Amino acid sequence: MTTVRPHGQLPAEDILARLGTRAVVLVGMPGAGKSSVGRRLAKRLGLPFVDADEEIERAACMSIPEIFARRGEAEFREGEKRVVARLLQSGPMVLATGGGAFMSAETRAIVAQYGISIWLRADLHTLLRRVKKRTDRPLLAQGDPAAKLAALLRHRSPTYAGADVVVDSRDVAHDVVVDEVVAALGRHLTSPDRGPSTMPVSPAPSVPPGAQRSAVRVDLAGRPYDILIGPGLLTETGTHVTALRKGARVAIVTDRNVAAAGHMATVEASLDAAGIAHTAIVVEPGEKTKCWAGLQQVVEGLIAARIERRDLVLALGGGVVGDLAGFSASVLRRGVDVVQAPTTLLSQVDSSVGGKTGINSPQGKNLVGTFHQPVLVLADTGALDTLPAREVTAGYAEVVKYGLIGDHALFEWLEKDFAGVLNGGPARIEAVAASCLAKAAIVARDEKETGDRALLNLGHTFGHALEAGAGFSDRLLHGEGVAIGMALAFAFSARLGLCSGQEVTRVVHHLQAAGLPTKISDVPGELPDTDGLMTLISQDKKVSRGALTFILVKGIGQAFVARDVDPAEVRAFLAEVR
């Protein structure tokens, strides 16, 4: 895949001749840069620039927020349709439309008749950063802007994708994006079939045509890092490592299954191509490797490879590898930086982000560990295509979790599109990005889990006890334990009168529809009795001075931290649901 460079662009006069009386219409989300790019594009082409929102405000003698407040969104949309139709029929121009304008079928029809539509596509993190300081976005004014923006992006993207041309609006100089718009517009106007013309997200040849990339920034004070999301990232490992730490050696920590899938060879080839010295430590797959012996194997391997403080440990695999590699890096020479390259859905949406590392004890899960933030996360969604279906389904439980703890709109979207997440494609990438954005926001506020980061443990107290009871074996994968735990957390909340039974039924139905277990009896084989499970629950990391702490809910998207939960209530509940 190649990027059209400015010297290969169709001259402005040729573009104008091919446009004729049509307008260039920019569509996309708030924060996509329609106005800033549009003004520069109009100047480049020698056309007038018109901002539809400014025209609407001028006609109404009110600002957009005032129109929403006084007349409501429905009346605003009707006026918007009339203004856009009038403008499009007044001759060639560059027209920047409001974020919701293209959602109208009538407006899309008139755009198709009188213009060429260009979707300025931006990822969620970029949009959020651009709009968070703006107060003139009525649809984002109340509640959590990140959750609202994510919901709008999920809802609108399929419609935006119907534009004639798609160009990615990235954090580069505006003129770079304008160059890409002009190039893509020229390609569209000279294309024999005049089909949609899409500029690539990245010029790297490893990215399949039309593939979508996303990026999320974890804004920790003094230690920010990026989560890159999309297909083909493993083939670019050498490029990213060179940019991050030129001259560093790399120790790849992976497991036998990941190596057999070919991912280690892909990473090694990329490092070789970049001239980066590297070594590999391969452990056995599975939760049982997260133990003292596994930690010793990795640490001793890193020492034998002479990995020093300026070098990098690269965790290539799922949650087990990520935890082992991160923990080992945190204690080696009192701290070596780690790059997380998660290859499972669960690790891409959860364990690779946020810096938690650890190993298990016979007395409980993740009871020994450190906080050690990565310096980069490469979430190659193409790697998920090699996973068994059960692994993908188990990882999906952590995606659902983000909707249940604080994003009702995300849960609603998952109810409709979960098959797309499980089967791959754009829905999966969007789900990974939405999950990472949600976790990144929480981690930035509460890195060491002294406050609301504990919400990320919804379902984990019950789930971890069941995992330990199953001997950390393949009888119960971590995501499956979380799914049962979330169903139990909702049912326990209903028992305490905190949420309705209908909410419990809805959550359980969705988890079951996705192929996840929801009952203790769904775990094959023997488990500890109620007293045994209570003993395991009492070892949970959130226990403080012997008091039980649970993440409970008042409904979907309304999780909260409940401290001093009565153990007798938990015991009676477990005895009832077993």
What does this structure look like?
The structure is a single chain. The protein is α/β, with parallel strands linked by helices and 578 residues long. Helix content is 48%, strand content 15%. The chain contains 22 helices and 17 strands. The strands form four sheets. Strands 7-8-15-12-11-9-10 form a seven-stranded mixed β-sheet, with helices on both faces. The longest helix is centred in the N-terminal third of the chain and has 25 residues, at 64-88.
Strand order of the largest sheet: 7-8-15-12-11-9-10
Average pLDDT works out at 87
Distance between the ends: 55 Å
**Beta-strand segment tally:** 17
Helix percentage: 40-55%
Largest sheet: 7 strands, mixed
Record keyword descriptors for this entry.
seven-stranded mixed beta sheet; six-stranded parallel beta sheet; 17 strands; 48% helix; disordered N terminus
Summarize the topology.
Elements: H1 12-19, E1 23-27, H2 34-45, E2 49-51, H3 52-60, H4 64-88, E3 94-96, H5 105-114, E4 115-121, H6 124-131, H7 145-160, E5 165-168, H8 174-190, E6 197-198, E7 214-218, E8 225-230, H9 237-244, E9 250-255, H10 256-260, H11 263-273, E10 278-283, H12 292-304, E11 312-317, H13 319-331, E12 337-342, H14 345-351, E13 359-361, E14 364-368, E15 376-380, H15 389-406, H16 408-423, H17 426-445, H18 460-469, H19 478-495, H20 501-513, H21 530-537, E16 548-553, E17 559-565, H22 567-577
Parallel strand pairs: 1-3, 1-4, 2-3, 4-5, 5-6, 8-15, 9-10, 9-11, 11-12, 12-15
Antiparallel strand pairs: 7-8, 13-14, 16-17
